[in-house]
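My current task is to audit a protein record that another person submitted. I have pasted the whole thing underneath without changing anything:
***
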Amino acid sequence: MFENLEKVGNKNPVLVDSIFTFELLLRFSYPTLQEEKVDRLFGKPWMLRDITYDMLLLENQIPFFILEYLYSLALASNTIPLQHNMVLSMSELTHRFLQNRVYIRPFEEMKEKIKHEGTKHFVDFVLTCHRPLELPQKKRLKTLTIPSATELYQSGVKFENVTDKNIFDIKFENGVLKIPHLRIRGSTEIFFRESHCLRAVSKDVDLLVKSGILESKLPDSEAAASYINSLDLGPILFSRNFYFTDLCEDLNAYYRVPWHKWKASLKQDYFSTPWAGLSIVVAAILVVLTFIQTVCSIMSL
């Protein structure tokens, strides 16, 4: 589509990267623009994964206005063989390419938000799409840590999988922590690395998988936990302006109540199944009957 790039490659690498990215987005959304034989990019899925990884590295960001400008030039010069009613905006092209790679909501749900907030580059686009539609008020975070999933479960917190495309729409209500479904596989590394949102041990992974929240394509829980923890490269947390301050404080407050742990321990250790609960009841009845028998024996003396 764009020829003689080698003539400007050494002089203007940003322009070359921009043109390459622009053509990649076009070919993805318009398969008719792909090469007739085996396309050099789309015929190699692993190459697309590597390209997506590079596209979402912060140091590789291309200003979005450059891509929009190239698109307008291509449309004005009729170099793209598209009918007028088939033309998509640059935001739509970007959304189509990234949607299934970084868990983005459908474009119709995000269109007004993207238009209102604007787009600086690809990382900013992903951030805009993942930012909750209703943002809580930013507050200062006093405690930088929260209990692990296993610790929360042992204190009586229930985990519930909610059908939401935005993985940051996390809510804690009436002892129930509601988390959107999350799939972990090798190709999602770049998204989680940019998010800095996960910590886990194998027990946490097992618990979240059992709750239907986590879907792991890795060999086992240990591998999934190691994979998650390997993504941490020292994220920066601005504790003075943290969107999930209320969530963290509510979880910590619930965890600190002793009664919640005692109640959860009783239920999980002694009433985890109907048969276990029945055996406890029978044992209690036997103790009461034995006590009554002992009292009656003493009184008959």
Notes: The longest strand covers residues 158-162. The longest helix spans residues 274-300. Residues 2 and 20 are 9 Å apart (CA to CA). The mean pLDDT is 75.
